[in-house]
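Record format v2
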Amino acid sequence: MKILVVDDSTTMRRIVSRHLATAGYTDVIEANNGAEALEHVADVDLVLLDWNMPVMDGMSFVKEVRSNPALNRVRIIMVTSEGGKGEVLAALKEGVNDYVVKPFPPQTLLSKVKSLMEWLPEEGK
Amino acid sequence: MIELKEKFDRSLFSALATTMEEMAFQEVEQELEDTLNPIDSNQMLWSKMDIITPFKCAMAIVVDQSLARDLTETIYGSIDPLTDFQVKDALGELLNTIAGCFLSELLPSDIPFDVSLPVVGEENLPKLGNNELKYRYAVNGCETVLQFGGIIWDELADIIEGV
């Protein structure tokens, strides 16, 4: 079970990776922005994705991934400080599977990760 | 206008307290007059960003460098020596999170907002704009300042009241 953490902040990548490690998710790749993340997305099961990033932001990344049918199985959780209803709806419309608003207690993030990972299709099916 | 100012004050304190608690496991208190020493400008670290929509202003956080290091150590949870880059990045991320939390509390839920990426600097904070507003808090017993510049209160009132 491989997870990609995408955030231009080293701090946030560290926080998210630490939370994941406490729940046993240790196969984690990090990327600095959406463009860098596109190089790794085909190899992962779940993306934890910041919204506001330089080079390529979260929304642009989601649009790129969801336009590729080969990546339909990749789950995406948007991790963002922008909690307005408009942003949530826009993200869900583009194909984000779930959404968590910063700051979040670790359990909030982990329960969403666990929930999405349980819905992953098995290999070969 | 008094109600708006009170809502602004409450939203800001709530955002700072929630962010510090969830990210850095610190409690925040609203500073009483003259209970804390002002931050020495030679030891100052700040991060600033712009609120772009639905209203324009600049927002900043100002702390002492030692508090910034303490917060970063807590966030990283590592015994490895911290780099200056990590400390500055952590402060920028704290401000980014505080701003998002603040705007989510302040604005009606159907109003989107947009902010710039934070920048971080040392020593004196550049002027943020007209009508600067300064809020002083205590985080881990150390002064922490949140500052705004360029707010047009009538414009903000219209946005919040849906005019």
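The CA atoms of residues 73 and 82 of chain B lie 7 Å apart.
The domain at 2-161 of chain B is CATH 3.40.1550.10 (Chemotaxis protein chec).
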